[in-house]
Amino acid sequence: MERRTIGAAALAVGAVGLGCMPMSWAYSGSRQRGEESLRAVHRALDLGSTLLDTADMYGPFTNELLVGRALKERRQDAFVSTKVGLLVGEQHIVANGRPGYVKRACDASLRRLQTDVIDLYQLHRADPEVPVEETWGAMAELVRAGKVRALGYCAMGARGGRRSGAGLHDATIRQLRRVQQVFPVTAVQAELSVWSPEAGEALLPWCAERGIGFLAAMPLGNGFLTGTLTPGQGFEPDDVRARHPRFTAEMMAANQPIVVGLRRVARRHGEDVTPAQVALAWILAQGPHVVPIPGSKQERWVTENARAATLHLTDRDLTELAKLPRAQGSWE
User: Fold this and answer.
1) Which of 33, 97, 190, 267 lies at 20 to 30 Å from 318 by C-alpha?
2) In which band, very low, low, confident or very high, does the pLDDT at 332 lie, cut at 50, 70 and 90?
3) 175 contacts 190 by C-beta, under 8 angstroms
């Protein structure tokens, strides 16, 4: 697989990564099977999808434990990205950016991941009660201690909806400017996809200008852009899409033209090319510093996603995709 470099440190990763969250968190608990997910991780590494993206809150903790089982055998093949800053309670999630907590959480993640160093340690959310410089400073100390190689920042809170993309990531950019004064940002993770392109308007160019890598989260639109979901199919109560405003039967039907457009482009590239691969290829075409991290828990989807790295969209394709209708469904 093509390799891409992220950040000033030029850390090399496969062009398509693997989001590990669905293996343990947020999607259809009845379909989460540890051994099947473990095989999916190994398949990703076999194909060159080296970036494994996890977080301590996924599970919580169980996702890191799962990834750690793979790393125990294949640490040299993987680029490990995990996150800190969120605590999961019974019915709530809260931010914790206290320096002491950050250091303890890192040690715990290292144990679960069965490794002595984390390649990319990301701040999952800034704690509104702690100056972000203090949190980032504690994370920088972990780099100096040799426990972490590089730092990343997650900008996952912004949603598009009825609002214009203009200004959507202004607060994130302001915080990024602040933490850059403390220690370099190697990568920023934010939602980016054909149906959620807002990050491309300001945040993506901001990263490109500064040599910062961009990890595209939810590049397949929580599964919608794969074309495998049916309007009105319903979701399990623990699945985030059960409460997602774009996954009501009405909105899924209204947004089908986006999938139709992806299929149309896919057909031009061959019978075996899928809408999901076109969606990922669109992400890859946004810049050499961009790495999509589609989530998956099955080998067949991991294989399909990895092959998107060999799909090169034409100018005609990109123009056509740019003209797709905006997704309907309010985030607010």
Assistant:
1) 190
2) very low
3) no
Q: How far apart are CA 79 and CA 279, in angstroms?
A: 23
Tokens of 6: 């992220």
Q: Which of 220, 54, 219 is nearest to 124 (CA)?
A: 54
Q: What are phi and psi of 280, to 5 degrees?
A: -70, -40
> How many C-beta atoms lie closer than 10 Å to residue 298's C-beta?
17
Q: Say if CB 28 and CB 236 are below 8 A apart.
A: yes
The pTM for the full model equals 0.94
Q: Which of 58, 101, 121, 153 is catalytic?
A: 58
Q: Specify the DSSP element, H or E, that contains 177.
A: helix 170-180
Q: Rounded to whole angstroms, how far apart are CA atoms 95 and 87?
A: 6
The answer to whether 81 and 56 are in contact (CB under 8 A) is no
Strands (E), 135-267: 148-154, 187-191, 213-217
121 is catalytic: no
Cα angle for residues 166, 312, 298 (degrees, 5° grid): 85
CA distance 264 to 99: 50
Q: Which of 56-60, 193-197, 271-275, 328-332 has the lowest mean pLDDT?
A: 328-332
CA atoms of 16 and 84, how far apart (whole Å) = 23
Q: Dihedral sign, CA of 9, 154, 36, 228? A: negative
Beta strands in 2-91 (DSSP E): 3-6, 11-14, 18-19, 51-53, 79-84, 86-88
Q: Report the sign of the C-alpha dihedral through residues 161, 32, 189, 2, in that order.
A: negative
Give the C-alpha separation, 140 to 103, whole Å.
10
pLDDT digits (tens, 9 = 90+) for 44-80: 999 999 999 999 999 999 999 999 999 999 999 999 9
